[in-house]
Write a structure and sequence with these properties.
alpha/beta; Oxidized Rhodanese, domain 1; 3-stranded parallel sheet; 41% helix; disordered N terminus
Length: 374
């Protein structure tokens, strides 16, 4: 990964920490529907290190190791939870992963059936919601999404606040040292440099105590014993390509306004128009009749939260004609990321029939029998 990319990701995370007097990372402003799906940073902090609670990062491997992760957490990259071959075939569709393989994967992360799972990512949401759908559609009910992800923990960890304060002071003193040396004031430079050394030592002492750790690989987990009860699989949360094709035909015949279906394409415009293709998918483009609504419209980048406030999201959906009387199929590239952000958002707003198309473009774009638009 390039140095520039690492810096950019770190800046997006908002590595500078400050206090949130407005309860951004608390839960006093959460509605009951939000509490069904989300856990606030303050509540999550209370569960760190607790028995039968496992924090699961849905971010990419390099993000986990280089940018950071909650200390001791499991790594389950959301896109890696979408089991497919090079041709886009999903062996147990519409399940993201075959039950036997899922049991092994989950158990290897120290998770059992009685474990509370807290899914998180940097803060944006899609990778955490991808983990949420993975567990939820396999029948695991005790799972929450950490609203604000790592950004919330960075803001709330008191040791992180001290560490960031010392770091800023080191930068200021280091700049003053250079200026003193430039002016030829050796005595002043030496005095200031002692401050830098003292503060650096304090930072080194604090670093192992930080909740968000960087530069570390995933720890080995004590193997769990996870078993999937196939009678509890949530088929109501997922959709097949045949169901989506039926929606395509209905939208074509009746028009978007009169159809009982909505297909949400949550990707960026380059992917939608076929200018960008990912993972060797044979064709670029989008599913005919889809409503274009990028996931960034509902993630709260300004406050570093995984979702905007409910009323703001309600207005977004109303503007695009996404109403509660319709069956809604969100999709993205792999069906375990950006599309799931919409599923959780809509569920929190009381939409009942929302089913992620788990095959998404990785399956649709590779199936030459399925129609596409560009």
């Amino acid at each position: 990964m390039s140095k520039l990319f690492k810096i950019a990701v770190a800046l997006m995370l908002g590595v500078s920490t400050f206090s949130y007097a407005d309860d951004t990372y608390g839960s006093n402003w959460y509605s009951e529907s939000m509490k069904q799906y989300l856990i606030s940073g303050e509540e999550a902090m209370k569960l760190l290190g607790k028995k039968n609670v496992v924090f699961v990062s849905g971010d990419a491997y390099e993000t986990y190791e280089i940018v950071g992760h909650i200390n001791g957490s499991a790594l389950m990259y959301a896109h890696g939870l979408h089991q497919t071959d090079i041709g886009g075939t999903v062996p147990c569709a519409p399940l993201l992963m075959c039950p036997e393989d899922a049991e092994k994967k989950i158990s290897s992360k120290g998770i059992s059936n009685d474990t509370m799972v807290i899914a998180y990512d940097d803060f944006k949401g899609p990778n955490a919601t991808g983990v949420w759908l993975f567990f939820k559609h396999l029948g695991h009910e005790n799972i929450k999404i950490l609203n604000g992800g790592m950004a919330a923990i960075l803001a709330l960890d008191p040791n992180q606040q001290k560490y960031d304060k010392y770091r800023d002071e080191v930068r200021n003193f280091s700049k003053a040292v250079r200026e003193a040396q430039k002016d030829g004031d050796t005595k002043k430079a030496d005095t200031l440099n002692k401050k830098v050394v003292e503060l650096t030592k304090l930072m080194d002492e604090l670093q192992p105590k930080l909740i968000i750790q960087k530069g570390k690989k995933e720890p080995k987990h004590v193997k769990g014993n996870y078993k999937i009860d196939k009678s509890k699989i949530r088929w109501d949360l997922i959709a097949t390509k045949d169901e989506v094709l039926k929606a395509v035909e209905d939208i074509k015949a009746k028009g978007r306004d009169n159809s009982k279906y909505v297909i949400i394409d949550s990707r960026r415009m380059g992917e939608i128009m076929g200018e960008v293709t990912l993972d060797n998918v044979a064709r670029g483009g989008h599913i005919p009749g889809a409503t274009f609504l990028e996931w960034t419209n509902i993630s709260d980048a300004d406050r570093k939260l995984s979702f905007k406030e409910l009323e703001a999201m309600r207005k977004v959906f109303e503007k695009h004609g996404i109403t509660k009387d319709k069956t809604i199929f969100p999709y993205c590239h792999v069906g375990a990321g950006r599309s799931t952000e919409f599923q959780v958002a809509l569920k929190m707003l009381g939409y009942e029939d929302v089913r992620t198309y788990t095959g998404s473009w990785n399956e649709w774009g590779n199936d030459m029998n399925l129609p596409i638009s560009r």
